[in-house]
Specification:
Length: 376
């Protein structure tokens, strides 16, 4: 009597190479279709850029190689134009700055503080920072951002000495923010612009002294505004009564400098308009220049591709839709659009606090300096 043959176990079939290749090709085609509109829009800008470099001749190569000089020039131009804008047209600066530059600068914040350092791939970072930043956005209370900074320090990959040092700074600030809520938010509204400048300062090692120029200009312009140096320009330009901005100087005095003498309050509002404009330049121009491994500037198309690599194409469409939607809203009601943006963007200053604390604790800026020194 013959024994029954053992049952044969059929191994799972491997995916067909043809099907896999077809799926990959379809995915690539879909990605290319999504990228095509951006490439079409950016091609003329790159063509104009090439012509400008041709006109510069031998200066173009020097401009491309010397990052220190380029950043110093851009930073100085940003400070000077921001000072003139704050002195001549402060209400327009405060009204249009968030509408035109707000959404792109939020993208820069998230990109360089969250995505580029790889924090978005760490579950503990989401757990420690996610809820406090969300509550901070909903309530506008800076105490939530400080709680996020404390949580970031607790989950940071660092030594206990560095962790406790950070907590020793953050904890008292958090207590003060709870005790003096309202005033803490006004103070933070002014200081968070300086935080961006400080992060730029720490981002990369310096090969010379060119970076001192924009820093000195920023400090000098801030002191000049506090001393009232902009008053003649403000009176000459009629910046206190700009029509069509959807707000008034009285409104900004009430939100940025309440319960202080009017002259001092006016100077504080001008300082805020100036520092906010420089803050936008930091995240849109200066830190992108500093973070790039190679000193040469990217083309506009190269910038888009770098953003695509960091975020993917679909999120960039979402950001573009938000920026466009905000602009359309501003055309219908400028004041409401500005207020809506500021409520939505409330998380970003607190992200600078929390992520900045975590990156400091983990020595990110020192590591960035080492990478740049090696030419990575």
């Amino acid at each position: 009597m013959s024994s029954a043959a053992p049952a044969q176990v059929t191994a799972p079939r491997a995916p067909r190479p043809a099907a896999s290749a077809a799926s990959s090709a379809a995915s690539s085609a879909a990605s290319a279709a999504l990228e095509a509109p951006f490439e079409v829009l950016l091609a003329p800008a790159d063509a104009l850029r090439r012509r400008m470099f041709l006109l510069l001749g031998p200066w173009a190569a020097s401009w491309a190689r010397r990052r220190e000089v380029r950043v110093a020039v851009f930073g100085s131009m940003a400070v000077i134009t921001s000072f003139l804008g704050a002195a001549l047209l402060p209400l327009w600066m405060l009204a249009l700055g968030p509408i035109v530059l707000g959404v792109p600068h939020l993208l820069g914040d998230v990109r360089y503080l969250w995505v580029r350092p790889g924090l978005h791939r760490r579950a503990l970072c989401w757990a420690a920072l996610g809820v406090p930043l969300l509550l901070g956005m909903l309530t506008t209370r800076v105490s939530w951002g400080l709680l996020g900074a404390a949580g970031a320090l607790l989950v940071a990959r660092t030594t206990w000495r560095r962790r406790l040092l950070g907590l020793a700074v953050v904890a008292p600030l958090g207590i003060l923010a709870v005790m003096y809520k309202g005033w803490a938010e006004i103070l933070f509204a002014h200081l968070h612009n300086v935080i961006g400048v400080s992060l730029w300062w720490a981002w990369r090692p310096r090969e010379g002294r060119a970076h001192w120029l924009p820093v000195a200009l920023f400090a000098g312009a801030s002191v000049a505004l506090l001393l009232g140096a902009a008053s003649p320009l403000l009176a000459w330009g009629g910046g206190l009564h700009s029509r069509g901005t959807g707000s008034s100087m009285a409104y900004h005095l009430g939100s940025l400098a309440p319960h202080v003498p009017r002259e001092l309050g006016l100077r504080l509002v001008l300082l805020f308009a100036f520092a906010q404009s420089v803050h936008y330049a930091v995240w849109l121009r200066l830190i992108p220049e500093e973070d790039r491994p190679r000193p040469a500037p990217r083309t506009f198309l190269g910038t888009f591709r770098a953003l695509r690599d960091d975020f993917g194409v679909v999120p960039l469409y979402v950001v573009a839709a938000l920026a466009l939607g905000l602009a359309v809203w501003a055309c219908m009601d400028l004041a409401a659009a500005r207020y809506g943006y500021l409520r939505f963007a409330g998380f970003h200053g607190q992200l600078e606090l929390a992520a900045g604390a975590l990156l400091w604790a983990e020595g990110y800026f020192s590591a960035a300096r080492a990478r740049a020194t090696r030419g990575a």
